[in-house]
Design goal:
- The protein is mostly helical.
- Helices cover 82% and strands 0% of the residues.
- The model has no long low-confidence stretch (mean pLDDT 82).
Length: 187
């Protein structure tokens, strides 16, 4: 059987890294004030990226997604003005703007840390409700079919019935005697 050679995954990854590096370099040259604002305003997101080693990097996703909502108004304000480095630095040293930017990142961390217990509670409540419904169904079945349904008595009774003939199927001793007579005649 012929094996197909797959293209090396590293070349695609390497190409993506080079492309990202070129784009970031161009962005820094063309829009330095925005890059400075994003670099410092999104600092909690970068920390979450390097701290979170899980497969999907869900901490980074939660923190960055909400952190960008705290940085975006200031980036839009920077673009609406003269887009200078001094305006970006003034926004970064303003305690209110830093509180908004880092506060939204804190909300992202709260979302990341707080949602699993909330979801677990809802799943537990749904499972308990399902158990209650199944118990009610079981009670109805026991009322209709008897206690053997719950203990599996019908299954074992049916199994035993297959091994032993019922009253209708019992053979008379006369039938066995007739078979013996036929055997004697044949000999």
């Amino acid at each position: 059987m012929a094996r197909y050679a797959s293209p090396p995954a590293r070349s695609t990854s390497r190409t993506n890294q080079i492309l990202i590096l070129v784009l970031v370099s161009a962005l820094v040259v063309l829009s330095l004030p925005t890059c400075v604002l994003l670099a410092f305003g999104m600092l909690p997101s970068w920390v979450a990226y390097f701290v979170d080693r899980s497969h999907g990097r869900y901490a980074f996703r939660c923190v960055a997604g909400i952190n960008i909502t705290g940085v975006a108004p200031y980036a839009l304000g920077l673009w609406a003005k003269d887009h200078s480095l001094m305006d970006a630095v003034n926004m970064l040293v303003d305690p209110v703007s830093l509180t908004v930017m880092y506060g939204t990142a804190g909300m992202g961390w709260l979302l990341y840390l707080g949602m699993p217990p909330v979801v677990g509670t809802f799943l537990n409540i749904a499972a308990q409700r399902r158990i209650r419904e199944l118990q009610e169904t079981q009670t109805d079945l026991i009322a209709e079919w008897g206690e053997a349904v719950a203990s599996g008595g019908y299954a074992s009774a049916a199994y035993q019935a297959d091994e032993q003939p019922s009253d209708d199927e019992e053979m008379d001793d006369d039938e066995f005697e007739d078979d013996d007579e036929e055997d004697e005649i044949v000999e």
